[in-house]
Specification:
By secondary structure, this protein is an alpha+beta fold. The chain contains 5 helices and 8 strands, in the order βαββββαββαβαα.
Length: about 180
């Protein structure tokens, strides 16, 4: 059955890095606000040490994770084994938003491959690390990464990407502040 870990050890790190997709969950403080779960992938996550990880957040149609982390820092990341032995790993933590203008953004950005247009790095300090059986998770085979996100970003210049983010990412669906660097 499930257990908790003091840190992300070599075995957990290998499991996390082997998964092609992970999920991020956040929620606003307001009980009437919308809870959010987002799938992530594309080699966008790095385990930085035993209690810290970061992922590259790409431009998208909403910015709920950024808004929620900006408001209250609470975040959960989850990986499911869709191949091999069943397992689910969750990392509960406190997040920080590192936008491109943040002094820590550029050095951390170098750890990720070039790819789709990014809007931030979400830096997560783990407060609870656990796993569970994953017996209910179906088996899937990864066919390939989708190409649409990269192609969409490649069709836009810097001004178009900023304009899109001003229109779609400055506020969450609940009206919370989200992406701030595009307003300048």
């Amino acid at each position: 059955m499930g257990k908790s870990f003091e840190e992300i050890d070599a075995g957990l790190r290998a499991f996390i890095e082997d998964q092609a997709v992970f999920f991020v969950a956040t929620a606003p403080l307001d009980a009437q606000g919308h809870v959010n779960v987002s799938p992530k992938g594309r080699d966008s996550l790095r385990v930085l040490d035993g209690n810290r990880m970061a992922y590259l957040d790409f431009v998208g149609s909403g910015a709920e994770t950024i808004a929620h982390v900006r408001e209250n820092r609470r975040i959960v990341l989850m990986w499911c084994a869709f191949e091999g032995p069943p397992r689910i790993v969750r990392v509960h933590g406190l997040g920080r938003i590192l936008e491109p203008c943040h002094p820590e953004f550029a050095p951390l950005r170098e750890r990720f491959p070039t790819g789709p247009a990014e809007r931030a790095i979400i830096d997560v300090e783990a407060t609870r690390i656990s796993d569970s059986c994953g017996f209910g998770v179906p088996l899937y085979e990864l066919k390939e990464q989708r190409s649409q996100l990269v192609a969409w970003g490649d069709r836009k210049d810097e001004a178009e990407l900023r304009g899109y983010q001003r229109a779609k990412n400055v506020r969450s669906i609940d009206g919370l502040p989200a992406v701030t660097w595009v307003e300048t």
